[in-house]
Amino acid sequence: xxxxDDMFGDLFDDVAAVVLFSPSGSLFERLSRxxxxxxxxxxxxxxxxADTFIELPIEFQDVSERVRFxxxxxxxxxxxxxxxxxxxxxxVFGDGIDTISRVRVDGSGELGLYNLFxxxxxxxxxxxxxxxxxxxxxxxxxxxxxxxxxxxxxDAGKVMNKSRPLSYNPFEKSHVHVGDPIVNVMLxxxxxxxxxxxxxxxxxxxxxxxxxxxxxxxxxxxxxLGARHMAGGAITRDTNAIAIALSESDGMxxxxxxGEIILEVDPEAY
Amino acid sequence: xxLESFLDQPIxxxxxxxxxxxxxxxxxxxxxxxxxxxxxxxxxxxxxxxxRSAQSLGTSTVKIVARLSSWFIYGIALLTAIxxxxxxxxxxxxQTIVTFVPQLFVAVLxxxxxxxxxxxxxxxxxxxxxxxKLPEVSILPRIVKYSVLYVAFLIALAQVGVxxxxxxxxxxxxxxxxxIVGAFAFxxxxxxxxxxxxxxxxxxxxIGDEVEIGDRAGIVxxxxxxxxxxxxESEEHVIPNRVVFEDGFARVRR
Lengths: 270, 254
What we know:
The structure holds 2 protein chains of 2 kinds. By secondary structure, chain A is of the alpha/beta class. Chain A contains 8 helices and 12 strands. In chain A, strands 7-9-8-6-10-11-12 form a 7-stranded mixed beta sheet, with helices on both faces. In chain A, strand 10 and strand 11 form a beta hairpin. Chain A is elongated, with a radius of gyration of 21 Å. Chain B is built from 10 helices and 5 strands. In chain B, strand 1 (210-213) and strand 2 form a beta hairpin. The A-B interface holds A 155-161, 173, 175, 200-202, 204, 206 and B 200-201, 203, 206-210, 219-222, 224, 230-231.
C-alpha cells in the first residue's frame, strides 16, 4: 500500500485546509486532534460543533455542486481565499465520507447561489423551506400529474404593488407561515391555481392567485422558458424579492434573483 | 367467665383494635385507589416527571396516594391500640401525637399534590411556549414549577407547625417582584401585543398597503404581534404596534 500512498500522497501536498462535508462525530473528533491541520466543516447543520462551519442550504446530491457551493460559501464568509488549495472530503456512494478531491478555490466563476440564501431580504430558513417545497412538489406533482408553480419570496409589500389579484385571495386574513406543518399540503393544493404565491420576508403567505406585472425590460433568462419564468425573473429585477419557479413542462426548479437564474436543480435528483 | 375476663384484658382489646384498623385501612386504600382511578387522576398526571419516577419504582401516583390513606389509618389504629394497652402513661405526650399525626398526613398529601401540580404546570407552560423559539424562554416553565413547589412546601410546613413567617415574607416579596418586573419591563410589549392581536385579526391594513403612521409613511412589509414594518424609498421603519394606536394611521389611496 506504500506505493498507493506514494501515488496519491501528493493530493495533500500543501493544502491550506481540509473541508469535511457532513462528517460523522467520531471522524471529526479524530481529525481535530491532529495538529497543523486546518479543518472546515460544511453541511446542512453543524452537528459536530466545529469552529469553522459553512452552512449548505440543501443536501446537494451532485458532488461537484456540493463542493462548489461549500467553497463559495467559504469565500463569502472570508474563511477561504481566492487561490487556496483545499482537500475536500465528501461522500459519493455511501453515507460516510469516501472521496477526497483536491480543489483550487476560484473566486471568478461565481454561482451566486450562496448569494441567494445568505444575502437575500427574506429569511434564509424561509427560502430554504420554499425551495424544499418546490423540489418536493416537482418530485411528486399534484396527484401524480406534473404541476408548475411560482413562489415570490421577500419584499412582499413591493411585490404586492407590482401585481394584481386574479381572483379572491385564499390566504386573506389567514396567518399561515411557510414551514408550518399543514402548509405544505395547502400549498400543494393551491398550486393548481393560476398565478404566483407571494411570501413575506418572515415567511407569511401573503397571497396566492397573483398576476405579476413587472416591467420585463433587461431580463436575461434563456429562451424557451415560459411566461411563468419570465414573470418570476422580471419581478426579481424590479424588487428585492427572489423567485422560485417550478416548471410544468420540464419539471426543473429554478431560482431567480435580480433578474437572473442563479440556481437550477432537477427535483428527480434529490 | 374466663372468656369474659380475658376479653376485659386491655391488651386483647388493643390487638382487636389493631386488627380492625389494618382491615379498614386496607379496604379504604383499595376504595381510594378505585375512586382516584374513576376520577381520572391517573390520566391527569400522565406524563409528569413525578408519575414517571413513580412508574420507574414500580408504582404510580394513584397507588402512592391510596397507600398513604391506608398508612394513615394503620397509624391511627396502632396509636389507639397503644393507648388502650396503656403502654404510654404520659397523657400530655399522647395529646401531641394525636394532633400531630393528621397534620403530618395532610402535609405529606400536600407535598405529593404539589409535586404533581408543579410538573403539570411546567408541562403546560412549556407546551404553551413551544411556538416561541428562544432559548431564554425555556427558563419560564422551570420558574413556574419551582414556584408551585415552593407554595406546596410552605403549606406542608405550616401544617406540621413549622414557623413559616420568614418564608411567607420571601414568597410575598418574590411574587411582588415578579408582578412589578412584569408590569414595568413588559408594559410596552403587552400593549403592543394587544394592539397586534387586533391588527392581525381585523387587518385594517395588510402587506402591500401604503400607510402613514405618525410622520412615517411607506409600504407595509410585515405585520406581526409586536411591530409593523413599513418601508419607504430609502428607509425601513420598524414601528411598535403600540404607536400605531397612539398616533393612529392613515391609508394612502392611489
